[in-house]
Design goal:
Formate dehydrogenase/DMSO reductase fold, 2 strands, globular, single chain
Length: 341
């Protein structure tokens, strides 16, 4: 295996980690009102991701940085051609971070309520647009001989791309509901379990259609039927386990489905990194979009040294904050007590 292919696979792993971990962050935020039904309930839901949401975004930063360093042509074409949707995602992530930090700064119900709606809205935007973006990457977009995107915004809104957005939305909603079922007690847990039982079959249906469409239309290799089958098995496990009240198995199944959906997308792409719908000869590939061997060698050593450290640290964080939360354990406006001292 050459280094360019290795980094193509490593970038797929980084995106997998991001979607599996940030996926339930988005899901929890989108479901705050549905499962919270009051300030304490919403705070309970938000507190389940409070210690980890910013750490989960490290996977996005690392994936973007790896693309920039390992495949600069891919990075340049992608971020210039998808400028508007990626800008919307970036703004949503920034606004979400501000909203999480600011919602408890003033002891006012209206203040907190407005920030809660901003948190929810800023989760819906990336949950949909990430699916649209990756579906377009797999489908192919207009790229000329200079590797420049020549289409417009509406080129990105094909039926396949919109189905991709619906797929990530459904998967993240299901992921978030199952996560809340594992991390909360009381009324919030009961509502989360109800949502999880509703969303898991919907996610299985939508993701199944998207996966089969991807395999039949955009994959040139037979082996990508394997991740299709594994992802379907994972979602089926989430459905059955949710019905039986085994949400640990349901969460694992949903996470496996998200991971193998990424495997399907990247497996369908290779050896391309961004196909051209104008002319296949203009496609960006692992070979013509990569950096020099020296750059990739240095990056590989850095990744081999630092990646285990990041994994251990993040795993420790999840272990420390592993206990369930309930609305009864959260006093009124507890975040303000610290500010008054």
């Amino acid at each position: 295996m050459d280094l360019a292919t290795f980094w193509f696979m490593l970038i797929a792993v980084l995106w997998t980690g991001y979607f599996v971990l940030e996926g339930f962050d988005f899901g929890v935020a989108m479901l705050m009102e549905k499962v919270g039904k009051g300030d304490r309930g919403r705070r309970t839901a938000l507190n389940t991701i409070g210690p980890v949401w910013d750490g989960n975004e490290v996977w996005l930063l690392t994936a973007g940085g790896a693309m920039f360093a390992a495949f600069p042509e891919w990075y340049a074409t992608l971020f210039s051609g998808f400028y508007f949707p990626l800008l919307l995602i970036l703004l949503a992530l920034i606004v979400r971070a501000v909203a999480i930090e600011y919602r408890g700064k003033i002891d006012d119900d209206t203040w907190r309520r407005r920030w809660d709606w901003i948190i929810m809205g800023s989760a819906w935007v990336p949950a949909i647009l990430w699916g649209v973006a990756f579906a377009n990457i797999v489908r192919g977009v207009p790229i000329d001989e200079t590797f420049t995107y020549t289409g417009g915004f509406f080129n990105l809104l094909s039926p396949y791309a919109l189905l991709g957005g619906a797929t990530t939305l459904a998967l993240f909603l299901s992921h978030g509901a199952i996560f809340l079922s594992l991390k909360t007690n009381g009324v919030v847990r009961e509502r989360s379990e109800a949502v999880a039982r509703q969303m898991a079959p919907i996610a299985l249906t939508i993701a199944g259609v998207f996966a089969v469409w991807t395999q039949l239309m955009y994959s040139a290799v037979w082996w990508t039927w394997i991740p299709v089958a594994v992802a379907a098995l994972g979602l089926a496990t989430a459905v059955v386990a949710g019905r039986l009240g085994r949400y640990g198995y349901a969460f694992t199944g949903n996470a496996v489905a998200i991971a193998f959906a990424v495997v399907l997308l990247y497996g369908s792409l290779y050896p391309n990194v961004m196909p051209s719908s104008t002319d296949p000869a203009f496609s960006l590939t692992v070979e013509n979009a990569s950096s020099t061997d020296y750059t990739l060698t240095v990056m590989t050593w850095v990744a081999l040294i630092l990646t285990p450290v990041v994994l251990v640290y993040q795993g420790w964080t999840y272990w420390v904050f592993r206990r369930r939360l309930s609305a009864e354990n959260i006093p009124e406006h507890s975040s303000l007590k610290f500010l008054k001292k």
